[in-house]
Amino acid sequence: MAKFKISLNMEFCRSADKSFEGGVKIASELGYKWVEPMVHTGWELLSEVNYFHSFSMEEDPLLMKEICDRYGVRVSSLSAHSPLMKPEAAVDRLTRAAVLASFVGCDFLNSDEMVKPGWMDDAFAHETMRYTLTRAAQVCARHKKYLCIEPHGIYTKTADGLLRIANLVDSPWIQINWDTGNSYLAGIEDPYEGLQKVRDRVFHIHAKDISMAQSDGERGKVTGTPVGCACGEGVVDWERVAKIMEPVDREIFLSVECGKIDEAARSLAFLNKALAEWLA
Question: Does this model's pTM top 0.90?
Answer without folding.
Answer: yes
